[in-house]
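User: Is it possible to get a 3D structure for a protein together with its bound compound? The compound here is fe (ii) ion. I've pasted both below.
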Amino acid sequence: MSRTDKIEFYNIIEDIINYHKFQKLDNELHHGITRYDHSLRVAKATYYVGKKLRIKKLNETVRAALLHDYYLDSDLQEKSSKEKLSIHPEIACHNAYKDFNITNFQQNIIRTHMFPLSKELPKYKESWLVTVMDKSVAAYEMYRFKFSLVFSVWALFIFNMLTIQK
Ligand SMILES: [Fe+2]
Ligand SMILES: [Fe+2]
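Assistant: Yes, that's possible. Here is the predicted structure of the complex:
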């Protein structure tokens, strides 16, 4: 991302990332990193691709991308893992509406980011963009997390073997 793009990107999302409740996502584990970092990565990917595709509502879309997982684990207590997958977009949308007064357009983006698990269809091309960006980022993060986990276990095993032989 160029310096100008970086400035534009952070101008779009500044109030959200500085909001105390959003900063709580930095303590929530998500795909082996924090939900804050995951959300920021999805927003950046959306900004980058959205700009290349010259989408008209870039600012609104990027903000919705940042808020797509705006929930705390405590919001989903007593829900099964399967339920969490389909319910969390509704909770994120509710929280985002309450704290940032998001538009109907943004609500559709957030509610359908788990498509095809969502109850409604992505209505806009921007909704499709965010669901694809979220899946791509999640796949990258999970792969990276699993790879580093496997690597760490192997490194520990080899280290143990070497120290035993001595
Ligand atoms: Fe999600
Ligand atoms: Fe996500």
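The first helix runs from residue 3 to 17. The chain is about 70% helix and 0% strand.
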